[in-house]
Amino acid sequence: MKLQDQLTNLKLSKELKKLGVKQDSLWTWVLGCNNGKITTEYKLVIIGNRGFTDYVCAGRDNKEAGEMFSAFSVAELGEMIKNIHEAQDTYNASDLLFIWDDKIKMWTCEDEVLKIDALDIEDKFLANALAKMLIYLLKNKLINPN
């Protein structure tokens, strides 16, 4: 399985950041670097206190390096949802159900309490399905970020 299939894609990573999710992940989407020049294509890299890579031309504080977005793993998203569940009374994350639907070859998410239909939240990759559920909860103000 490819690395990018195990992490939130760039679009969902941007949406999570926009909604105020703390940018704390091992992997990060950053603008790539080619011969010392920043490119327009985003790459997945390990960055920050947990590691570093040659893809990054400049540090996090350099505006030329562009905006960076955490690429969350299934484990990181699972912990995030669990921590939100434990810290807030407004939403019970134990009602979430993620199912692999072999007919459509997608992960689907259901919540019988909120009556979220499986077709509302689905993705080929579990990290993206988890991210979509988190985005749904944030946008509908069922949970607060962080």
Give the SSE map.
Layout: H1 10-18, E1 27-34, E2 37-46, E3 69-71, H2 74-87, E4 96-101, E5 106-111, E6 122-123, H3 126-139
Antiparallel strand pairs: 1-2, 1-3, 4-5, 5-6
Helix pairs in contact: 1-3, 2-3
- The fraction of residues assigned to DSSP E strands is 15-25%
Structural class: alpha+beta
Number of helical runs?
A: 3
Radius of gyration: 16 Å
- The chain-level mean pLDDT equals 78
**What is the H-and-E element order?**
HEEEHEEEH
- Multimerization status: single chain
The helix fraction, in percent, is: 25-40%
What's the count of strands?
6
- Count of individual domains: 2
In which order are the strands of the major sheet placed? 2-1-3
- Major beta sheet, specifics? 3 strands, antiparallel
Distance between the termini: 29 Å
Which stretches are low in confidence, meaning pLDDT under 50 for 5 or more residues running?
Answer: 49-58
Q: Per the principal axes of the C-alpha atoms, what is the gross shape?
A: globular
